[in-house]
Sequence to fold (205 residues):
Amino acid sequence: MGPVFDGGLRGAGRGMRRWNTTERLLLALWLSLLVHAALLWLPLRPGQWSGWHEALRVRLRGEPAPAAAEPPPIAPPLAEAPQPEQDDMPPEDIGDDRLRLGADIYYPARELDQLAQERGRIALPDVVLSGSTQPIEVLVFIGAGGRVDAVRFEGEVNAKLADAVAPVFRGADYQPARKDGRAVKSYKRIRIEPQTEAAPPPLSH
Fold:
């Protein structure tokens, strides 16, 4: 029969103090905290939480950004007001029936040695008008080279008739008037009488 250590164990047991209930609860609490702390510091396994975070970041980047407000269309530059051309200036009577248009003086028929003559026949277009139209008077300003510088209408004129007649005279070509042996600027006063038939109205000087 071998040696018996019962007495020694009993002696060791007598030397150990028993834990009371409060101490046991504190010990259990500390163990629980240690376990949770260890879990928090454990390295993440591949494919677990790290993959979830990456997916979250990708999803956020994939959200459409708010559409940038389109810049307002560039307004076109304001058109400059057209400068009055010579053909838009009213003639100025400077006496003796002479007319000034801009800086140029145009002589009347009575001062000329030779009147300006048309180089070709002037044919007025047919114009469809409603109602009766009064005769109109046209002032044709002819330069010293025979070109027409401007066309003016005297008094109230039917706009449709004026738009049809004015280009015809502007495009006409004349043999210039002469005064004291040289070509000068002159003007013609032409009366146009509208007719009911299709024939072009006659010209009278």
